[in-house]
Structure formats: C-alpha cells, structure tokens
Design goal:
heterodimer, A: 482 residues, mainly alpha, 3 domains, two-stranded antiparallel ribbon, B: 215 residues, 7 helices, 0% strand
C-alpha cells in the first residue's frame, strides 16, 4: 500500500501537468510532490526496525534500508524541482508549452527512478533505469539549440550503449544462476540471487560484474565513460540538471552497489573492491583536473558531480565504515548539488550566460540567491559546518583504516585541488563589479524561501548526525551483509 | 539435440556475418536490410529454441521480435532513409574495419571461455558469436559518422544481447523481456526524434558537426 503512495503521485502529477493550465498544474505538482516524500519517511520508520517492506506476496516491490535512502533522496529532489522548476521564477522565460512538457516528463522521470530503487527484480530495475535515459533525454533540448540537441544526442547514444552493456552483465549472471538452479520463478529477484550467489561460478560472475560496472558506471558518470555528463548537465534546463546530478547518478550507483553485494556473496569481494577503487580513483582524478579548466559554472557543477560520484564509488570499496561514509555522502551530495543547480538556473536566467567571465558581482545583483548558492557550493567543497565535511572525513578515515594510505593520500590531494579551483571560481562570481546590463534585486524573494530547507538539512548533517539517520545508514550497511 | 546445436550455431554465425555488412557498405539501405535479415534470423532462432526447449513463452518473444524488429522498425528506417540518404566515408576504411572486427571476434572467444565451461546447454556453441556480435556492433557505433547509421549499430547491439540471452539461458523471464521490448521501442522512437532534430538544426546528419561542446 505504501508503494502506491510512493509511486502513483508522480504519474498523477504528470497527467495534471498535461491536462491543467500552467498555474493550477504547478500547485497540484507541488502538493503531489510532497506525497512520495511522506511515503519515503514511512519507509524510513519501517527500515529502522530492520524489516524490509514487501508487496505483494511475490515480492515484486521491495524496499530495504538501502532502497529507502535512495527513495528519500529522489522524493526530496522531486519536491525541490516541483517548486523551483520552469515557471517558478518570473524571469526564466519558458513558454507554457515548455513548462507543460517539463512538468509531465520530469514527473515520469521521478517515477522511473523511484521504480528502479524499489523493484526486487534486477531485470525490471534495468528496464526502469533505461527508461530514465529515454525520458530525461527528451527534456534536455527543452530549449532547442545546436548545443542542446548535440548534448542530448551524446547523452542518449552513450548512455543507451552503456546501459545495454549492463544488460549483458545481467544476462550473464542470470545465465549462471539458471545453469545451477534451473529456470526458477523470481530467479532475477535480489533476494533469490543473493541466496544463490555462493554457488555461482567465480569466473562468470566476475565477467558479469565487469559488464555491469562499465554499464551502470556510464550512467553514474564514472570515468572514462563520463563524457556525456558535462554536456548534458550544462545544456539541460537547470532543474533537470538538479535531478540528474542529485539523484540519477545515485540511482546508477545504487545498481552497482546491489550487484556488488551479489559479487561479494559469491566470494569475489577483493575483485569487486579492486575494480571500484581503480575506477573511483580515475574518476576523481579526471574530474579534478577538468574542474581546474572550466569556464562555465554549470559545467563546473557537472564535473563536481563526477568527482563526488567517484568518491562515493571509492567508499563502497572501503569496508563497512567506507560504505557508511559512501551512503552519507550520497545523501549529502544529493541535497547540496540539486540545490546548487536550481540556484545556478536562476543565475543563468538573470545573466543569460553560464560563463564565469561574464558573471560577476552576484552578491550585488541577486543577494539572496547568491548567499544560498554560496552556501551550497561551500557545502560541496566539503567545508564545515556542512554535511559533506563529515562524510568526506569518514571516507578518508575508512581509506586509512582499510590499508589504502597511498590511494587515500592521492584522493585527499585531488580533493584539495578541486577545493581551490571551485573556491576561486565562486569568489569570481560573487564579488567584483556587477556585469553590465544586468538588473539588480530579487523580485520573487519569497519564492526562494524553501531553499532554507536543504541548507538547514546540510547544516544539521554537518553539526550532529541525527540518530534516526545514522540508524538508517547503519541498516543500509547491514544490507551489504556486514 | 545435435540438430538444435548445429542450427543455433548456424543462426548465430549468420547474425554475426550480417553485422559485418555495414563495415564495407555505405548506404543506409544496405544497413537496414542487413538489420532486417538479422532480426528475422533472431526471431527464427528464438522460435527454434521455444520448440526444442518446450518453453512456450519464447514463442511470444519470437512473435514480438518479428513484429517490432522485422516489420515496424525497418519501415521507420526506410522512411528516414528516403529523407536523409547515406553514410559518408566513416572513420575507418573497409579493410581496417573488417580486420578490427576479426580481432574483436577472437577477443569474444577469449572472453566467452568461462561461459562455455560453465554452460551445459546445447546452444552454448553460439555464445562467443553472440559476444562477437555485441563487440562488432559497438565498433559500428563508434566508427560511423552519421546519426542514422549509429542508430542501426545500436539496434544490432540489442540483437546481439537478445541472442546472448536466448543462447545462454533460453531467454530472460517474460516480464523482463516485455520491459526490454518497450524500452527498445521507446528508445528507438526517441532516437528517431533526435535524428530529425539534428537534421533540422544542423542541416546534416554528420555527427562530426556535433563537436561544439568542449571544455
């Protein structure tokens, strides 16, 4: 029953977006976006007790603590985007037809992501994740231009190929399972797969994991398959970038984490960890050096997402403490990056550009937006008192504790380089003489108020981890079989 | 079962060979025709597997394949072909392409070794060919310059995966299969929209022009 409250509101909101005029549709959209958030909180309460929620008897849908963490992030970002989406500001210049299209497709996008994290069947999860690509690709060229068409073409081709490879991995694992146990009903269910894992062939499951990691890694923005990401995030409407950065990457990481559990259970933990460490390190390195070179703030945010995805990926390979840190980091990044992107959208609409050289004096032109944007970026830099400071610290501790001093040292250095370059860019945007021809003031200041919620969340996570959340994360780590 | 093994190996080889055609032909029509024949072979193999394994669900899958990939998609491809014309000189010439494909098939045999050791199905002989088809399709996608020919490469990649599923496990469960079909159809339609959009905004389907976005 709870799944109905989780999954149906986005579909209803999508229909409302198509059927109703823009203004009432916006109201309906915001109200309906809060329902999945409530449902996710209920799932949270149940997950704390350590009992996965299952529906129906055949367990087609199943939410354990890990699913719940993801569902919370998706529902949060969905609500944020419902509020700050196209048509929210008075100056974003979207046509009613575009607003309608965004409302409909972004809600379907939310639905596919929520579906991906609560289905029990890995095949159906794959179908849902592939559907996220198709739906979101349609939204990137909301404003048609050469750049946005190019970005969406790259996105759909690279991600479809990647996700196809993930299906190869799924088929290989299924093949090994059927080979041992025969074509059982529910053979692709997590629970069944996990129970059978110790008997799977080591070679086959390793091969399958390589395909799965490349496949879902493409979608998660792990290097060297990340090439679609900066273009797509920079050219997409900012609220869509918020959803892609804040949750889509996390959903892809979720798929990798789920498969890692199967590989672990098959006795190939060292192999999985080695791959994740290598690819995570490469990702953080490439993202950091690209960050230094950026000229546009949306691309900067995109590369920062790649960096944080890499960090989360590293955490998954660093034992129980690392997994705890990775899950916390995932939540933190989801909140901080989605906020930063929606605010970046406001800046873009005011300045009509995303280039650093032409965006100056933000504190003078849009004081409230600038302050919130700065808070978001400072959080993303991993500075106290915000949540990412805690999760990154835990990540480094896990790195040293599991005997990877060199790798951790390198990552630490890279994070500092990224820190310096982002801080430099941020200072350039905030201060200086305001760019010519840019109007001053915030006509819709009240609109901006809800942004205090994510800032407050990041502050709370940075100052003291509430026991309800740490309990949920600990249950999440338990799902990994620790 | 001997006959089944031989027929499935024959069908898989035919599918791989059909994937080589785009490596030296440059007209979209040749690509589309190779894809249609490949899909027909895949549908036939699926039906054959249904017959020998007694798994009635696979007949449904074969029928879906026939409808979607032998009838609907080739029609849409033909319509786009009439509007947009052919592949220009790709990044790799014919000789290099075919040689690379040969290396990829060899590589597929190496990768498939653990699978062959693990499998007891009569169809296992075709597994390396299915992986070979997947790798060759990837080669087609990365070495073509036109959006439309990349799409056909992607369709062949999907065929390769479907072949792998049939040979290795007699297909995935039906609920997943139906989901995959829906995604394949939606994905193709969306890609088709983009092909039209690229044509409109760039007045060409040459993806080399899609290189404005750089760091």
């Amino acid at each position: 029953m709870i799944f109905l409250w989780l999954l149906s509101p986005p579909l209803a909101a999508a229909l409302a977006g198509l059927a109703l005029p823009v203004r009432p549709a916006r109201l309906v959209n915001v109200v309906l976006a809060l329902v999945p958030a409530g449902a996710a909180v209920v799932l949270w309460q149940r997950a704390l007790a350590g009992v996965p929620t299952v529906w129906p008897a055949g367990a087609f849908l199943r939410a354990d603590a890990l699913s719940t963490i993801l569902a919370l992030c998706i529902a949060f970002v969905g609500a944020l985007v419902a509020w700050f989406g196209p048509g929210a500001g008075r100056e974003d210049g979207y046509q009613p037809a575009q607003i309608r299209r965004f409302t409909a497709l972004s809600n379907v996008f939310t639905f596919t992501m929520l579906g991906a994290v609560v289905v029990n069947n890995v095949g159906v999860m794959w179908v849902a994740i592939e559907a996220t690509t198709i739906v979101s690709a349609l939204l990137i060229p909301l404003v048609m231009s050469k750049a946005s068409v190019e970005a969406s073409w790259k996105y759909i081709v690279i991600c479809s190929v990647g996700i196809a490879l993930a299906f190869v991995g799924t088929v290989l694992a299924y093949f090994d399972f059927v080979n041992l146990a025969g074509p059982l009903g529910g053979a692709l269910n997590w629970t069944v797969l996990l129970a059978a894992a110790p008997r799977l062939h080591a070679d086959v499951i390793r091969l399958a994991f390589v395909f799965l990691l490349i496949g879902y890694g493409t979608k998660a923005g792990l290097s060297p398959m990340h090439t679609w990401l900066p273009d797509a995030h920079a050219e997409a409407p900012a609220p869509l970038s918020a959803m892609m950065s804040g949750t889509l990457l996390a959903v892809a990481l979720y798929a990798i984490a789920r498969w890692k559990m199967v590989v672990d259970a098959a006795g190939q933990e060292a192999f999985a960890n080695g791959l994740l460490l290598t690819i995570g390190l490469l990702t953080v390195a490439i993202a950091t050096f690209s960050l230094v070179l950026q000229r546009s703030f949306k691309r900067m945010l995109a590369y920062s997402s790649i960096e944080h995805t890499g960090l989360t990926c590293l955490g998954l390979a660093l034992g129980p403490l690392g997994i705890f840190a990775a899950l916390l980091h995932l939540v933190n990044h989801s909140v901080a990056k989605s906020t930063a992107f929606v605010l970046a959208g406001r800046v873009q609409h005011r300045y009509h550009t995303t280039e650093f050289t032409r965006v100056t004096g933000l504190l003078a032109t849009m004081p409230q937006t600038a302050a919130a944007f700065a808070a978001g970026l400072v959080a993303l830099l991993g500075l106290p008192p915000f949540g990412l400071f805690v999760s990154e610290l835990a990540l480094f501790r896990a790195g040293f504790a599991t005997g990877h001093p060199w790798a951790t040292g390198v990552v630490l250095t890279l994070v500092v380089i990224a820190f310096v370059s982002i801080l430099g860019h941020l200072a350039g945007m905030l201060y200086g003489p305001p760019s010519e021809g840019v109007s001053h003031g915030e006509p819709d200041r009240w609109m901006l108020l809800p942004v205090l919620i994510p800032v407050a969340i990041l502050l709370v996570l940075g100052l003291s981890l509430p026991s309800s959340l740490s309990g949920l994360l600990a249950r999440g780590v338990e799902v990994f079989g620790r | 079962m001997r006959l089944f093994a031989q027929l499935s190996a024959l069908g898989s080889s035919a599918m791989l060979l059909l994937a080589l055609i785009p490596l030296w032909r440059h007209t979209v029509r040749a690509y589309a025709r190779a894809f249609t024949w490949q899909s027909l072979t895949l549908a036939g193999l699926t039906a054959l597997t249904a017959y020998f394994s007694g798994d009635a669900e696979l007949y449904a899958v074969a029928a879906l394949l026939l409808g979607l990939k032998v009838v609907v998609i080739p029609r849409l491809l033909a319509r786009m072909d009439r509007r947009f014309g052919s592949e220009i000189q790709p990044y790799l010439n014919a000789t290099t392409s075919v040689l690379t494909a040969g290396v990829l098939v060899l590589f597929a045999y190496i990768v498939a070794e653990p699978l062959l050791l693990a499998s007891r199905l009569p169809t296992r002989g075709g597994i390396p060919l299915a992986l070979g088809l997947i790798f060759v399709s990837l080669l087609i996608i990365v070495s073509r310059k036109r959006a439309l020919t990349q799409v056909i490469g992607f369709l062949m990649l999907e065929n390769g995966i479907a072949l792998l599923a049939v040979l290795a496990a007699y297909g995935v469960p039906l609920v997943v299969e139906i989901g995959v079909f829906m995604d394949a159809l939606m994905g193709f339609l969306v890609m088709q929209i983009f092909v039209y959009q690229i044509h409109e905004t760039f007045e060409s389907l040459d993806v080399e022009q899609l290189s404005r976005l750089k760091d």
